[in-house]
Amino acid sequence: MTDPTPDEAPIATAELPDAIPRVGPTPAAGDLPPGAGGAVLLQVTDVVKHFRGIRAVDGATFAVREGTVTSLIGPNGAGKSSLFNAVTGFYPPDRGAVTFAGRSIFRKPPYAVARAGIARTFQLTRALTAMPVIDNMLLAAPHQRGESLAGALFPFGTRAREKQLREQALELLALFRLDTKADDYAGTLSGGQRKLLEFARALMTEPRMVLLDEPMAGVNPTLGRELMAYMQRLRTERGMTFLFVEHDLEAVMANSDQVVVMAQGRVIADGTPDEVRRDQRVIDAYLGGAGG
Amino acid sequence: MHELLPLAISFDFFNGADFWVGVGVLAGIYTVLTLGLQLNVGFTGIQNFGQIGFAAIGAYVMALLVSDADWSFWLAIPVAIGFAVCVAVVLGVITLRLRADFFAIATIAFSEIVRYIAQNARGLTHGNQGVQDYVATWRSFSRDVRHDVLDGIGMGGVEFNQMPLLIVTWIAALLLLLLLRHLTKSPWGRVLRAIREDEDAARAMGKNTLRFKLQSLGIAAAVGAFAGILLALQTPNVAPDNYLPLYTFIGYAVLILGGLTSWWGVAVGALIVQFVLEATRLIDFGLTESQTSSMRFIIVGLVIILLVAFRPQGVFGKREEMVLGD
Predict the structure, then answer these.
(1) Closest to A114 (Cβ–Cβ): which among B191, B204, B325?
(2) Which parts of the chain are coiled coil (chain B) (predicted)?
(3) What does pTM read for this prediction?
(4) Mutation target among B190, B193, B196 for the A interface, most CBs of A within 10 A
(5) Does B188 touch chain A (CB under 8 A)?
């Protein structure tokens, strides 16, 4: 009864399916030179979010360029997850500005942020456990007329789209070696498989940018490296943009074009992995408490 | 002999076809009422404990439009249902943002508010006396059906008085059941199930979850209002005491018995609960009348406790969805 789990699988080498559209400019061959990438895709300016008396995010400013991988790091309680939730609309920010592809998404509800082209995953996986894997995928697809009451009542025009989405979903599941699990309940998947499902599901929304909240947390090192490899390929082959919160500094330094460092609700450093590594403020924040 | 048996059954009732026709009508009405709960609780994960409030609104609006405003009965029905849907949307906009348990409390409060208004706004609702003058159109329709159709098959007698209502109720119940089943098999139903599983995940996938929850509550209110109208034809009296929260809870008993997410389970559950509630009238427990009527609810309660303990998915529910939903 033991299925081959992705945990033991080799680093992803399968061809990326056509189900994943090209969303950004093709970056130069090989790794991007520091500071490169397309135009600014996500701009966060002076964002403030407080909960009662506590300023979780206290005026954070940074930009993410299209076609890059940016990571957001900082000690515990630095406000990384709060900033993530403020950008995606789960905790509407109190002040500041957030623009995505030139349009404001400041205080937009989560569904509107998602429709604008930002997909996100959660720190603890949020597989819809009492639904089949394939339904988890189909749900994520945009532009479904069958999701309106009229479309549900008269499904004649919606079946072709449903069929097309099903093929698209199966292609994506095959990429993550979950296609044999398509009709199983998501609750029967292992923790690693759920992480992959959540990643595949995020891609199903046809995002321009993907926000990953601690993708390596609770994942064995092999699967973690595999997730990072997928991320790199999606960036180089499809021009997708990534922003991820992560505690694993080795993974951060190896995979990011740009690193944004937060401490006590503020951005204290922002640059290439090398620049950030040498920055005295960063060393202080990690070793001695900010400003120590 | 009779006195020696502690649980003797009296067969007097079995002779009365009207008794069983009445049981069938009530089972049909509970089916319609609980279809709304199934959509809310089973598919959307919103704990609507105010379903009987929508039934009250449907019944009162219909009855008052016909008796006090001289509207046509047939026109009053859709208007009453539409009114209940509007109330549901207003209620939903205010309360659906609340956490699940607070929403449940708010909906009980809503149904009690409706009942207290019915009791106390005497100028409008006639208070505890209730409304009666709305059944003429239905009675003549019912009489026509009995003469034109039922006479021919030997069911024209006075004991089949409620036969037309039984037929109409069950046709409506089955049509609504099939309609809701059709709706929930669509991508729309998939979004509802996603909200039930994890609303934040659904929002992260671009779904405007409040809109879907409002639609779910609105449809539940519509079928609830329709159940209220059918109940008004069965009683036939629209009075506050017909809309106690107890009846919502019986709807939940039907839901649990039939099984969450099972549409056919609603109809079967309603038949079983109504049969148990009424058939236990026929058992002579050797108790006083009021003790016997309490005993009926004790039996229904026991059945549900045993069911939850040994078969939590109900008669038709999917066990996987119970076990894996976390």
Answers:
(1) B204
(2) none
(3) 0.90
(4) B190
(5) yes
**A170 in B contact zone (CB under 8 Å):** no
Longest dimension (CA), chain B: 71
Residue A72 and residue A120: Cα distance in Å, rounded?
14
Q: Across-strand partners of A107?
A: none
Structure tokens at B317: 């529910």
**3-state class of A88 per DSSP?**
coil
Q: Strand A258-263 and strand A266-271: pairing? A: antiparallel
A interface test, pick of B186, B200, B208 with most A CB neighbours within 10 Å: B186
Q: Mind listing the pLDDT tens digit for each residue in B256-305? A: 989 989 999 999 999 999 988 887 777 777 777 788 778 877 887 888 78
**CB-CB under 8 Å, A152 with B183:** yes
Contact B92, B85 (CB under 8 A): no
For domain A38-127+207-292, give the fold: Rossmann fold (3.40.50)
Domain coordinates of chain A in residue numbers?
38-127+207-292, 131-188
Nearest residue in chain B measured CA to CA from A206: B205
Q: How close is the nearest chain B Cα to the Cα of A275, in Å?
A: 33
| Strands A266-271 and A95-100, sheet pairing | unpaired
Rounded distance, CA A158 to CA A137, Å? 17
The CATH number that domain B2-324 falls under is 1.10.3470
Crossing angle of helices B163-184/B187-197, nearest 10°?
A: 80
Question: Average model confidence (pLDDT) for chain A?
Answer: 87
Inter-chain residue contact A139 with B182, CB threshold 8 Å: no
